[in-house]
Amino acid sequence: MRRFGILAVLLALAACGRSETPGQMAAQGQIDERAPIKVALQISVAAPPAKVWGILSNIGAWPTWQSDITNTAVDGVPGDGVLFSWTTQGTSVHSRIQLFQPDRALAWTGTVVNFHAIHVWTLTALPGGGTLVSERESLTGWFISLFYSSAELQQVDQRWLTALKVAAEH
Hints:
By secondary structure, the protein is α+β, with helices and mostly antiparallel strands. It contains five helices and seven strands, in the order H-H-E-H-H-E-E-E-E-E-E-H. The chain has a seven-stranded antiparallel β-sheet. Mean pLDDT is 89; it is low at 1-5 and 7-15.
């Protein structure tokens, strides 16, 4: 019985092997499609991409429009490779910007304990001056599914999209 348990653990570890790191995936604007928890959402915003980008990329101001976020700290001017931390729902997240394309895409990786997130935002100009904001996120880590679900992540990310829409349209 003990051999079977060890074999199962080894097989699970092998299945978790990734050919690309979370940072590499995020830098390509991709989430981890094999993650146990992931979401993809979109929202139309009646504001141009430059305005939406200005709000989204100003990490220091996130708490002013996203009520789930209570604190942010950025190590320099936001751009590729810049570190930042933020607190959401009482949890401190340590992040790194992996993709920074003004008015088009922002992606970062984040870590909480042994859980790892990839968060990708894409802005697409719409006819009439609006913006389609696409948001994708994946979460991985030992036993994360015991603590969190895709449905819960979807609720959190939908609040974030709705808050971004309200901030950009006012």
